[in-house]
Model the fold of this input.
Amino acid sequence: PAPSAPGAPDSSPAPRGPRAGSGHHDLVQRSLVLFSVGVILALVLNLLQIQRNVTLFPDEVIATIFSSAWWVPPCCGTAAAVVGLLYPCIDSHLGEPHKFKREWASVMRCIAVFVGINHASAKLDFANNVQLSLTLAALSLGLWWTFDRSRSGLGLGITIAFLATLITQLLVYNGVYQYTSPDFLYIRSWLPCIFFSGGVTVGNIGRQLAMGVPEKPHSD
Done:
């Protein structure tokens, strides 16, 4: 048989190339957005905790919010990117596409509630640690029920809360930073609630970003 002409186009890989490149570009974009969200939330929430004197850093480090524990915002940004990409991936593998309140207005309300929960933990005075823990646990579960309601979201939120709390306590025990309260049970009691609600919030952002084209605005 005659050899094919050198200039003959090879049509087989043509449809796959642009699609693969587009998928990679979309993944990078979503990762950068989630990383930025994680960094911003870390800076805002860290400021709330410092104002409450829950966390304690050296005086020269508290000079500005951006210099306090410089490694915390990048770590939170990286964690947000991983969690935000993991949520839609788990939904896809379980065959349970998440359709509950898939709109940016709902996502923004979820972020506002999450910041409000952190504000409550930093600003409100509670009679005892048990009351604080129960209140934040109820608020965190309420956030999940209002904006998520998926089994995968609940399971991932609990897993994230456990792992993040464990890592935080290891950092405390190794002297990377410390809490002003000598009662470590006090710190450990509300940390899982914050991490759980944070995981649900970032997961909702990741799910919405994975949808690609924004939905039309929802009118209450």
The beta strands are 55-56, 178-179. The chain has a mean pLDDT of 77. Residues 26-210 form one domain.
